[in-house]
Amino acid sequence: MYLYDQYDQTMVDARVAEFRDQAQRRLDGKLTEDQFKPLRLMNGLYLQLHAYMLRVAIPYGTLNSRQMHALADIADKYDRGYGHFTTRQNIQYNWIKLEDAADILADLAKVEMHAIQTSGNCIRNISSDHFAGAAADEVVDPRPYAELLRQWSSFHPEFSYLPRKFKIAVIASDSDRAAMRLHDIGIQIVERDGEQGAKFYVGGGMGRTPMVAPCIKEFVPLDQLVTYTEACLRVYNLQGRRDNKYKARIKILVHEMGAEAYAEAVEKVYGKLAEHPLDRVVEELERIRTFFEDPLFEEAASEAIDRTDPDFALWVDRNTVAHKVPGYVSAVISLKPVGGIPGDATSEQMRLMADLAKDYSFDELRVMHTQNIVLPHVRKADLHALWTALDGAGLGSPNLDTVEDIIACPGLDYCSLANARSIPVAQQISQRFAANGKTEALGQLKLKISGCINACGHHHAGHIGILGVDRKGVENYQLLLGGSEAEDVSLAKITGPGFDEAGIVDAVETAADVYLRERQDGERFLDTYRRIGMNPFKEALYG
Length: 543
Fold this sequence. Notes:
Elements: H1 6-27, H2 33-41, E1 45-47, E2 52-56, E3 62-63, H3 65-78, E4 82-85, E5 91-96, H4 98-109, E6 127-128, H5 143-153, E7 168-171, E8 185-192, E9 195-202, E10 215-221, H6 225-239, H7 250-257, H8 259-274, H9 281-289, H10 310-319, E11 320-322, E12 328-333, E13 344-346, H11 347-360, E14 365-367, E15 373-379, H12 383-392, E16 407-408, H13 423-436, H14 439-442, E17 447-450, E18 464-471, E19 474-481, E20 493-494, H15 501-518, H16 525-532, H17 535-542
Parallel strand pairs: 6-7, 7-8, 16-17, 17-18
Antiparallel strand pairs: 1-2, 2-5, 3-14, 4-5, 4-13, 8-9, 9-10, 11-12, 12-15, 14-15, 18-19, 19-20
């Protein structure tokens, strides 16, 4: 993984000192809240319902044991002993005091971490495939390119005050494990005629106007990756809607212009930028690549797994993923225990995950956008020892990609923007399916819950999605079906009138039962929905 050089460290340290002064001026009454708001947002600090929330950047979801230990220490010292891993591969702390914020940033800086650009109208944390560098199907490890874009975008003066926030994802396989086409810019590294390049998708996003990004450029040489990305941003920065924040996203611009016209505008800017190439991009990329070389895998590692323990065997089947090196797998640590809060981890659990990463995964962890944690490089011979430790700490749930593997935002329990609670609904659904025994029969079923239209829980992309809304002061939940964030990307559709809290749990089970009744051999929930359409589900839900 990438390690800071002196320039990186100096830059982050300077930012901490700057924010310390800003926070102190706010505490002293020398800055009003309106004056302080853009300053704190640039440093990942939100004012939520009960306290400040700090969002810490984990670039493309990669961190080491030292960093995970630091996150645990922060949870204990400054929060309430836990953190919340997000759908942007970051971590949030929900109970922060303003007087502690600068000290937290200083503690983060000691382990090469920060909270810069995790909020505000800027380029946010660059996301990527959580199996990057381990997946057997990738063209190349996409993380060096994500890191290059991170360095280019950090403190970029032209893109610090965009019309609205901007999200970029980079992948390098046909399997999309990063919801790439639901980003403002989605980049897929591809190979054509023996040459690697980048395929650009622009104009995706969720929120109140969900859209799937169209492809605007089939192939950009990799030495022009930053230049073409900058051209995309420049067009948006100049032409994006600043008169209406609800229409200020690039997806609206691409939709209103049309993908072809937007692509033509980008080409014009790209042509001018290409006349004056960015200095040292290729040189910097080569420097960055050295940090992402493969670890020293054991040659001819054993493929054998003792499956005599049925609980362990089930976890292996559900929570491990094929690796590019024989004898290894990527192991997913579920943060979705039955009745738990999706994405939450206690400080003790963070420390255990850190230690297990050091012992069994070359000191590397990944945060998934599905709010789980990956140990990317685990020997099959070590799996039982790993699972035993996880299971003893409440981290051994064998539920990856099942109905119990729920994505949920913090909702109205914490967020000042939310209209309804997400957490209790997620807890009740996981408990319902654990009790009725249908999880195994349902197979892959991706359930996502958002407490408001901002869609931090990615409800539009769920095979089953739930959106919390306000109905005359009462929490109400809309049910959506048919979404996908993978390579078969699609947007879920609302079934009809919403439900109360108890009703939405029943509605999810009803939709699951329709699938169990109507499915054909080998079909996932999503496949059955696409084949039979919405009507059988609506009839079961509403009569």
